[in-house]
C-alpha cells in the first residue's frame, strides 16, 4: 500500500539530514535531489576532488544523522523569491537548474531550514527530528545516477537509505531482503536449469531449458483450461504489423517502447509491443449481432518492448514478454457481468498458486493533464465509475490511484502478496471506450442499428516470464506437485533393480505423471542428494523389498514418507494431489 504521510515525512526529513552529514565531510559537494522511495530515501551528490564515500564513510553519515535526530532539530519552511533562491544556492548548479525550471513553471519556491542547512524543497517533513525513531533507518549503499536521469548530464553519486516507522519494521524489511536474496529467481533459475540469458542473443531475451519450458506450459495450460470453461475462444495473430495498424490505434503517437520499424515492400513494419490492435482488427473483419456478444477472444503470445538495458532483470523485466492476453467485446449492459467473470477467474487461478492475500488498485486518469489521454471526459467518467462500483461490490481491499491509467482507459490492477510479504502487480483488467471508437467497431442491435461495443482488456498472469520469476521466488524453487517440472524421481538401489524401476517409470508416465529414472552409476547417496537439490517432490527408492512385493517407497520433499505402498495406490494418491493443486 501507499506509504502514510508520517512515514513519508520521516523518510524525506532523513534525506535532508543525509545532506547535512555529507556536507560536514565534503563541504563543497554539490547537491542534486533527495526524494522518498518505497523503502526509504536517497540523495544525489557530486563530490569534489574525485572523492567517493567508502562503506566506513556511509556508517559515519548514519552516525552523524542519528546525532542530529537526537538533538531535536526543527524544520522551518518559508517562501522565497526566485532572486533570493538564486542567491542562497549560488554555488549549487543543480539547485539553480531546479530553480530555473520551477521559475519557468511559475511555481512558488519554498526553502526549509534545518540547523544551518537550507534546502530547496516543497515540504513534507517532521516538525522536529525527535519524531524520527533513531533505530528505524540505515544508510545502505551508493550507485551512479545521471542528473535528471539523462546520459547527457553529469554522473552523480546516489546515496541510499532505508527508513521505516520503527526499528522493528526496519528489521523485518532487512530480513525480507535477505530471504529474497536466497530466493533470487536468477540464481534458482540457473540451479534448477529453468532458463538462461546469453549475450549472443541479447539482454532481456530469456531462453528456457526443457524444465523451464515445462513449467511455462503447465502454467499456460492451467490458464487455458480456466478460460475454456468460461467461454473464451483462442485466436492467433502474427508478431509483426504494418505501421498503419498503430496509426489507427494511436500507439505510434503515444507508446514509446516500440522498436524501430523494418521496411518490407516500402512499408514500415513493426514488431508488436502489445496485441490489442490486432484483436480489434480481427473483430472488425466479421459482422457481429447483439445476440453473439460478448465475444471473448484470447491468445497467449509474445510481445517485444524496448526496456532500458539498465532496468532489465532476470525474468521480471524483459524485452520479450508473453501475455495471456484477452479482449472481450461487450455490450455496455454486459460490462459488469464480464468483469465479474474475470474476477472469479483471477481468484481461482491465484488460489492454485497459494496466493490469496491481495488488494485491487483502481488506476484512474490524471484529471489535470488531459493531453495524456484519448477520449472524452464523459467516456472516462463512465468507465471509472463502473470499475469503482464493481470493486466496491466484491468487498475486497482496494485503493484508488490517480494518474496510473493507460492512455486509452482506466484499469484494475491486482496486487498480490508473496510468501515473504512482497507486493507484486500481476493481473490487470482494463476498460476501453476508446479503441472501439478508433477502429470503428460495431455490432448490430435489435433495431438493426450499428452500436459501438465496449472492449475489456484482461491478462491474468500479466506476463508469463515475469509471473514465472515471481513464482520461483514465492516457492523458493519448491514448486507444488502440479507445477513441478519433474514430479517423481525413481532411484533403483543398484543395477539389479533397474528393470523393475523401468516398469514403475512406464506406469507413472502412462498416468501422465512427470517422472525421471536415475539409473546412473553414481552411489545411491549421491543420486538422492542430486534429486534433493533439484527439489523433486517425490523420490522413489526401489530395492529388493519393493521388487518382491511390487510396492514403492516414497520420500516426499517435505520429509513425509509413504512406506511400501502398492504402485496403483501411489499413483492415485499423487494424481489427486496434482488435480486438486495441493500445496504442502
Ligand atoms: Zn524537504
Ligand atoms: Zn489489450
From TrEMBL:
<keyword id="KW-0862">Zinc</keyword>
<keyword id="KW-0547">Nucleotide-binding</keyword>
<dbReference type="GO" id="GO:0005737">
    <property type="term" value="C:cytoplasm"/>
</dbReference>
<keyword id="KW-0436">Ligase</keyword>
<dbReference type="InterPro" id="IPR002320">
    <property type="entry name" value="Thr-tRNA-ligase_IIa"/>
</dbReference>
<dbReference type="InterPro" id="IPR012947">
    <property type="entry name" value="tRNA_SAD"/>
</dbReference>
<dbReference type="GO" id="GO:0006435">
    <property type="term" value="P:threonyl-tRNA aminoacylation"/>
</dbReference>
<keyword id="KW-0067">ATP-binding</keyword>
<feature type="binding site">
    <location>
        <position position="327"/>
    </location>
    <ligand>
        <name>Zn(2+)</name>
    </ligand>
</feature>
<keyword id="KW-0820">tRNA-binding</keyword>
<dbReference type="Pfam" id="PF00587">
    <property type="entry name" value="tRNA-synt_2b"/>
</dbReference>
<feature type="binding site">
    <location>
        <position position="457"/>
    </location>
    <ligand>
        <name>Zn(2+)</name>
    </ligand>
</feature>
<dbReference type="InterPro" id="IPR033728">
    <property type="entry name" value="ThrRS_core"/>
</dbReference>
<dbReference type="InterPro" id="IPR006195">
    <property type="entry name" value="aa-tRNA-synth_II"/>
</dbReference>
<comment type="similarity">
    <text>Belongs to the class-II aminoacyl-tRNA synthetase family.</text>
</comment>
<feature type="domain" description="Aminoacyl-transfer RNA synthetases class-II family profile">
    <location>
        <begin position="209"/>
        <end position="480"/>
    </location>
</feature>
<keyword id="KW-0479">Metal-binding</keyword>
<dbReference type="InterPro" id="IPR036621">
    <property type="entry name" value="Anticodon-bd_dom_sf"/>
</dbReference>
<dbReference type="GO" id="GO:0000049">
    <property type="term" value="F:tRNA binding"/>
</dbReference>
<dbReference type="GO" id="GO:0046872">
    <property type="term" value="F:metal ion binding"/>
</dbReference>
<comment type="subunit">
    <text>Homodimer.</text>
</comment>
<dbReference type="InterPro" id="IPR004154">
    <property type="entry name" value="Anticodon-bd"/>
</dbReference>
<dbReference type="InterPro" id="IPR018163">
    <property type="entry name" value="Thr/Ala-tRNA-synth_IIc_edit"/>
</dbReference>
<feature type="binding site">
    <location>
        <position position="276"/>
    </location>
    <ligand>
        <name>Zn(2+)</name>
    </ligand>
</feature>
<dbReference type="Pfam" id="PF03129">
    <property type="entry name" value="HGTP_anticodon"/>
</dbReference>
<keyword id="KW-0694">RNA-binding</keyword>
<protein>
    <recommendedName>
        <fullName>Threonine--tRNA ligase</fullName>
        <ecNumber>6.1.1.3</ecNumber>
    </recommendedName>
</protein>
<keyword id="KW-0030">Aminoacyl-tRNA synthetase</keyword>
<keyword id="KW-0648">Protein biosynthesis</keyword>
<dbReference type="InterPro" id="IPR002314">
    <property type="entry name" value="aa-tRNA-synt_IIb"/>
</dbReference>
<keyword id="KW-0963">Cytoplasm</keyword>
<dbReference type="InterPro" id="IPR047246">
    <property type="entry name" value="ThrRS_anticodon"/>
</dbReference>
<dbReference type="GO" id="GO:0004829">
    <property type="term" value="F:threonine-tRNA ligase activity"/>
</dbReference>
<dbReference type="InterPro" id="IPR045864">
    <property type="entry name" value="aa-tRNA-synth_II/BPL/LPL"/>
</dbReference>
<dbReference type="GO" id="GO:0005524">
    <property type="term" value="F:ATP binding"/>
</dbReference>
<dbReference type="Pfam" id="PF07973">
    <property type="entry name" value="tRNA_SAD"/>
</dbReference>
Amino acid at each position: 500500500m501507499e506509504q502514510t504521510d508520517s512515514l513519508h515525512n520521516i523518510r524525506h526529513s532523513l534525506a535532508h539530514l543525509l545532506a547535512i552529514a555529507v556536507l560536514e565531510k565534503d563541504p563543497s559537494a554539490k547537491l542534486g535531489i533527495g526524494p522518498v522511495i518505497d523503502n526509504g530515501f536517497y540523495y544525489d551528490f557530486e563530490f569534489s576532488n574525485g572523492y567517493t564515500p567508502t562503506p566506513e564513510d556511509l556508517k559515519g553519515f548514519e552516525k552523524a544523522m542519528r546525532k542530529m535526530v537526537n538533538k531535536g532539530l526543527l524544520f522551518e519552511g518559508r517562501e522565497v523569491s526566485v532572486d533570493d533562491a538564486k542567491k542562497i544556492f549560488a554555488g549549487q548548479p543543480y539547485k539553480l537548474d531546479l530553480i530555473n525550471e520551477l521559475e519557468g513553471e511559475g511555481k512558488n519556491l519554498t526553502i526549509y531550514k534545518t540547523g544551518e542547512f537550507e534546502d530547496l524543497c516543497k515540504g513534507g517533513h517532521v516538525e522536529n527530528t525527535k519524531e524520527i525513531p533513531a533505530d528505524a533507518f540505515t544508510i545502505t549503499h551508493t550507485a551512479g545516477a545521471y542528473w535528471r536521469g539523462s546520459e547527457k548530464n553529469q554522473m552523480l553519486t546516489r546515496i541510499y537509505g532505508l527508513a521505516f516507522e520503527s526499528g522493528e519494521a526496519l528489521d523485518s524489511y532487512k530480513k525480507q531482503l535477505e530471504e529474497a536474496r536466497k530466493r533470487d529467481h536468477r540464481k534458482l533459475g540457473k540451479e534448477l536449469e529453468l532458463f538462461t540469458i546469453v549475450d549472443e542473443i541479447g539482454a532481456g531475451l530469456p531462453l528456457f531449458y526443457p524444465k523451464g519450458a515445462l513449467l511455462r506450459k503447465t502454467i499456460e495450460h492451467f490458464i487455458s483450461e480456466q478460460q475454456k470453461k468460461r467461454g473464451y475462444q483462442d485466436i492467433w495473430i502474427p508478431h509483426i504489423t504494418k505501421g498503419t495498424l498503430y496509426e489507427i490505434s494511436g500507439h505510434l503517437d503515444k507508446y514509446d517502447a516500440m522498436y524501430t520499424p523494418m521496411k518490407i515492400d516500402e512499408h514500415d513494419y513493426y514488431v508488436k509491443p502489445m496485441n490489442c490492435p490486432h484483436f480489434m482488427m480481427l473483430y472488425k473483419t466479421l459482422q457481429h449481432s447483439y445476440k453473439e456478444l460478448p465475444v471473448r477472444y484470447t491468445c497467449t503470445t509474445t510481445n517485444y518492448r524496448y526496456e532500458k538495458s539498465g532496468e532489465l532483470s532476470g525474468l521480471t523485466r524483459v524485452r520479450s514478454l508473453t501475455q495471456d492476453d484477452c479482449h472481450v467485446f461487450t455490450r455496455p449492459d454486459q460490462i459488469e457481468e464480464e468483469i465479474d467473470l474475470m474476477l472469479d477467474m483471477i481468484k481461482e487461478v491465484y488460489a492454485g498458486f497459494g496466493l490469496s492475500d491481495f488488494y485491487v488498485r483502481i488506476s484512474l486518469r490524471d484529471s489535470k493533464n488531459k493531453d495524456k489521454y484519448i477520449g472524452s471526459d464523459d467516456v472516462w467518467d463512465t468507465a471509472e465509475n463502473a470499475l469503482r462500483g464493481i470493486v466496491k461490490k466484491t468487498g475486497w481491499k482496494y485503493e484508488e490511484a490517480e494518474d496510473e491509467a493507460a492512455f486509452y482507459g482506466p484499469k484494475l490492477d491486482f496486487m498480490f502478496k508473496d510468501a515473504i510479504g512482497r507486493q507484486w502487480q500481476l493481473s490487470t483488467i482494463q476498460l476501453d471506450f476508446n479503441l472501439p471508437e478508433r477502429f470503428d467497431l460495431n455490432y448490430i442491435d435489435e433495431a438493426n442499428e450499428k452500436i459501438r461495443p465496449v472492449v475489456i482488456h484482461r491478462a491474468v498472469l500479466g506476463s508469463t516470464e515475469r509471473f514465472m520469476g515471481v513464482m520461483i521466488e514465492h516457492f523458493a524453487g519448491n514448486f507444488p506437485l502440479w507445477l513441478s517440472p519433474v514430479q517423481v524421481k525413481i532411484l533403483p538401489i543398484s543395477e539389479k533393480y533397474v528393470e523393475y524401476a523401468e516398469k514403475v517409470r512406464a506406469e507413472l508416465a502412462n498416468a501422465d505423471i512427470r517422472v525421471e529414472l536415475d539409473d546412473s552409476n553414481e552411489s545411491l547417496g549421491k543420486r538422492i542428494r542430486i534429486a534433493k537439490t533439484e527439489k523433486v517432490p517425490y523420490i522413489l527408492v526401489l530395492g529388493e523389498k519393493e521388487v518382491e512385493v511390487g510396492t514403492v517407497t516414497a520420500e516426499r520433499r517435505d520429509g513425509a514418507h509413504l512406506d511400501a505402498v502398492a504402485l496403483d495406490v501411489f499413483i492415485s494418491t499423487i494424481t489427486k494431489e496434482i488435480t486438486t493443486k495441493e500445496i504442502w
